[in-house]
Amino acid sequence: MDVNDLDKISRVMGRGVLNKGVVNRDYDATRLSYKHSDSIVVFQVNGLEETLLYTNILTSRRDITSLLGAKSLHEAYQVFTKSLSRPGRLEVVDFNEYFVEVDVDLFKIPFVKFYREDGGYYLTSSIYIACYESICNASFHRTMYLDRDRAVLRIVPRHLHYIVSKYVEKGVDAPVALVLGLDPYHEIAAATSPPLGVFELTIGAELGGEQKIAKTPVYGIPVPANASIVVEGVISRSVRAREGPFVDILRLVDVEREEPVFIAQHLYLSRKRPLLVHSIAPGLQEHQLLMGFPREALMYSEVKRVVPCVEETRLTSGGSTWLHAVISVNRKCSEGDAKLAAIAAITAHPSIKHILIVDNDIDIENPLELEWAISTRVKASRDIIIIPDIRGSTLDPRSIDGLGDKVVVLALKPRSEPEDKYRLVEVP
More exposed terminus of the chain, fewer Cβ within 10 Å: N or C? Predict the structure, then answer.
């Protein structure tokens, strides 16, 4: 990414780029993201003026639709899901042509503090790339600064955790590359959880991102050639440190934990582009949409495949685009179909906590209409289904290690009664 890329993206999306100059390293990144959600905001932090930070590149589904060159949200879902089954091809280029090595000093990278509750200074757009044998993975992991050559990252039991565990079994530290300043296509891909063995960089390339990759000099880890910053190092198999507290996607304070330490060994900067780093304010629109859109697209694809009478699906803003889903169905859908749609949605996105299913006369973007459907069309004893003690999201504060309850609410016009009894009358 560079400034010209930001200008191109802003024109595609029909949004302006707002330059706020030099700001404080504490909290200002969050304030700017919150206050200027309709603009792409660029800024620098005190003492690190050579690196430009940007935020709010994706704050609406319209932004993603435009970025993917789609004419509708449904088409954007299709573009995304097709990239999973038809990943793009990558071209290997010479690393030294694109990057220059400098002395390792992580303090020169713009770690910032986003909230007063945070336990330290963080990178939120840090993508770690790691390979084991023929398997490579690229995924987001928040990273907290420790000192000039050490940081601590949060690793949940998914693909990076698997790769690290394989190195631990061999008694060695896991070689990784921390990359910053990727294009938004690769960021969307890195927020996805494809099957193990599908490399996220191939998904990003298919979506429209950088196809050229360069292999790091020491460990041969493939990184996008258009990255701004690459840090080559290892995730220690034995050294752990305190990570957190940290404000998460739900804007709740995630607890302090002992997590693996990343040991930086080599630091590389782009030869061809100004240094840009994406600053993703935790718990705000961009964070929620970047993490939620891939799940929403997969949910729509799976639910529509299983239950064709489904019209729309959404992960709602009130559920932080993560825990709450709304499904809209047409009149051909029976109550049994609606229940099956709920099961399909949970299969596609197991973190869902509550699912609301409505008829397509209800605007699923309008929370007042959704509440109206609940108030007029739900009979609790038969229309509310509780699934207790099932795997969900570890982010849910009411869960215990990710085990909690799921609720399905069928706010449908009863199929056995006259439809007109439940008709929402339009304002003349």
Answer: C
